[in-house]
Design a protein that fits this description.
By secondary structure, this protein is an alpha+beta fold. The protein has helices spanning about 5-15, 25-30, 50-55, 105-110, 135-140, 150-155, 155-170, 175-185, 195-205, 210-215, 215-220, 245-255, 260-265, 270-275, 285-300, 305-315, 325-335, 340-355, 365-380, 395-400, 405-420, 425-435; strands spanning about 20-25, 40-45, 60, 70-75, 80-85, 85, 100, 120, 125-130, 140, 170-175, 275-280, 280-285. It folds into 3 domains: about 5-140, Beta Polymerase, domain 2 (2-Layer Sandwich), CATH 3.30.460; about 225-380, Hypothetical protein af1432 (Orthogonal Bundle), CATH 1.10.3210; about 385-440.
Length: about 450
C-alpha cells in the first residue's frame, strides 16, 4: 500500500519511540478498492499525551483529546492520530459515555462500525484484517462488525452510514445487517438533523436506486412526509411506477450534483395530496405547488443552507413547465428564468422523463434538442440577462430616468433585444428607448 511521505513519516515517528501505529479505516478500504484515499487516519498504542510529546514541533489540534485524538497539521495534509480505545456504554444511542485507552489493536478495530472500515496497515506488517473486511469488499457487502443490532443501538447514525457506504461503493447490505437496519430505523429519530442531512447527501450521490426502494422505510423515517408516496399507484399512461418508485428512478437518472438529487427526491412528494381519479385515470393538478410547500418543511428541518433550499424549491415549482424547441418559446423562457436556470429546468425534465413509462422516453430527445437550440440562440445573440445588456442603469439616470423607471426601462430593452426588435448596441438602444419610451406605455 502506497503511503504519502507525511503519513509514513508520522508512522515512523511513533514506531521509533516504541509505539505500535497503523493507518486505519477508510484509507485502507479505498486502497483495496483501487482508489486513491482522500485522507489518512492513524491508530496507535501511544497515549494522547505521548502523541503530543512525539510530535513536538508540529502544529497540533487537540479538540478531540478526550477521545484520544490529536490532529497533526503538515503542509502535505492533516492526520488524525487516535489512541487504541474501547468505547463505554452508549446511553444516548449516539456517543459513548466514556472511552478507555487500550494497548491492543484488536480492541480498537472491534469497536468500529463495518468490516470494510475495520482494517489496519503498516508497511512492516501489511494489512491486518480481523473481521473479514477484504472478503466483504470482494463480495460487495456492507457488514457490521460483530452484532449489527448492538452496533446500531450504540449509534443510530450508523444506520444511515450503512446505506451511504452501500450507495457510494455500489454494495448491498449483509442479511443480518439489513435486518437490523429495518428493525432499528426508529433510532434515527433521535439523531441531529444536520448529521442525518450529511449522510443523506452522501447516500443520494452514490448508486442509490435499488437502496431507495429496498429501504423506503428508512427514508420515510427521516422524511415522514414521503410515506404516502410509497405504494401510491398513479393510474396514468405516462407512469408505470408508483409515485415513490418514480421518485427513486428520477433520483438515479439525475446527474451527480446534490441540487439535482435533492430536487428529484422531493419533486413529486406532494402528488398523493392532490390526486383524484377521473374515469380510471389519475390526475395530479397543482402537485408542484404542494410539493414545494412540503419540500420547504423537509429542507428546513434538515438544516440545508437557505440559498440551496431556495434553488431546489424553484426547480420543484417549475419542473412541469411546458417547453418546446421553437425560438419564441426559448426566448421567453430565457427571459423569464435566466440562462442557468432554464438549462437546469431542461435537465429536470429529462430526469423526470427517465422515471416515466419507457414508452415516453422519446421525449428526452426533444429536451436534448431544446438544450442544443437554446445554446445556439445564446451563442448567436448573447443577451438574455441584464448583465449582458449594453445599456446600464447609469446610462438611464444620465438621460433623466429615476427610481423604478430605471428597472422598467432596462427590462424593456432586454426584452427588445431578445425579441430581435433592437440590436444590443448602447447608442441604438438609447435611441430606441427615446422612440419607444416605456413610461408612455408604448411597448
Amino acid at each position: 500500500m502506497y503511503l504519502p511521505g507525511y503519513v509514513k513519516n508520522a508512522l515512523d515517528i511513533l514506531s521509533s519511540r516504541g509505539y505500535y501505529a497503523y493507518v486505519v479505516g477508510g484509507c485502507v478500504r479505498d486502497f483495496l478498492l483501487g482508489h486513491s484515499p482522500d485522507d489518512y487516519d492513524i491508530t496507535t498504542s501511544a497515549l494522547p499525551e505521548q502523541i503530543i510529546e512525539a510530535f513536538e514541533g508540529f502544529r497540533l489540534l487537540t479538540v478531540g483529546l478526550k477521545h484520544g485524538t490529536v490532529t497533526v497539521i503538515t503542509e502535505e495534509g492533516n492526520i488524525e492520530i487516535t489512541t487504541f480505545r474501547t468505547d463505554g456504554e452508549y446511553t444516548d444511542h449516539r456517543h459513548p459515555e466514556k472511552v478507555t485507552f487500550t494497548g491492543e489493536l484488536k480492541d480498537d478495530l472491534s469497536r468500529r462500525d463495518f468490516t470494510v472500515n475495520a482494517m489496519a496497515y503498516h508497511p512492516n506488517t501489511g494489512i491486518i484484517d480481523l473481521f473479514g473486511g477484504r472478503e466483504d469488499l470482494k463480495a460487495g457487502i456492507i457488514r457490521a462488525v460483530g452484532d449489527p443490532f448492538k452496533r446500531f443501538d450504540e449509534d443510530g447514525l450508523r444506520i444511515m452510514r450503512a446505506l451511504r457506504f452501500a450507495s457510494k461503493l455500489d454494495f448491498t447490505l449483509e442479511e443480518n445487517t439489513a435486518r437490523a437496519v429495518h428493525e432499528l430505523k426508529h433510532l434515527l429519530s433521535d439523531i441531529a438533523n444536520e448529521r442525518i442531512r450529511d449522510e443523506l447527501n452522501g447516500f443520494l450521490l452514490g448508486n442509490c436506486r435499488q437502496l431507495l426502494t429496498d429501504y423506503s422505510d428508512v427514508i420515510c423515517t427521516i422524511i415522514p412526509e414521503m410515506t404516502d408516496c410509497v405504494g401510491f399507484e398513479q393510474h396514468s399512461k405516462y407512469h408505470d411506477k408508483t409515485v415513490y418508485e418514480h421518485i427513486a428512478s428520477t433520483v438515479a437518472a439525475a446527474d451527480k450534483e446534490l441540487v439535482y438529487k435533492v430536487t428529484m427526491l422531493l419533486h413529486d412528494i406532494g402528488k398523493p395530496a392532490v390526486y383524484f381519479n377521473e374515469n380510471g385515470t389519475g390526475h395530479f393538478y397543482g402537485h408542484a405547488k404542494v410539493s414545494v410547500e412540503i419540500a420547504r418543511v423537509v429542507l428546513e428541518r434538515l438544516r440545508y443552507p437557505k440559498k440551496f433550499i431556495s434553488y431546489v424549491l424553484f426547480l420543484i415549482e417549475n419542473h412541469g413547465i411546458s417547453i418546446n424547441d421553437t425560438e419564441k418559446c426559448i426566448r421567453k423562457a430565457l427571459l423569464r428564468y435566466g440562462e442557468k436556470e432554464f438549462f437546469d429546468l431542461i435537465k429536470i425534465h429529462i430526469y423526470d422523463t427517465k422515471g416515466k413509462n419507457p414508452a415516453y422516453m422519446y421525449e428526452c430527445e426533444l429536451f436534448e434538442n431544446i438544450t442544443k437550440a437554446t445554446q445556439e440562440l445564446i451563442d448567436e445573440m448573447g443577451c438574455f440577462s441584464l448583465k449582458d445588456l449594453a445599456v446600464k442603469g447609469d446610462d438611464l439616470t444620465e438621460i433623466g430616468y429615476k427610481g423604478e423607471d430605471v428597472g422598467q426601462a432596462l427590462s424593456f430593452l432586454l426584452k427588445s433585444v431578445a425579441e430581435r426588435r433592437c440590436e444590443n448596441d448602447r447608442d441604438r438602444l438609447l435611441a430606441y428607448l427615446k422612440k419607444c419610451d416605456p413610461r408612455k406605455g408604448d411597448k
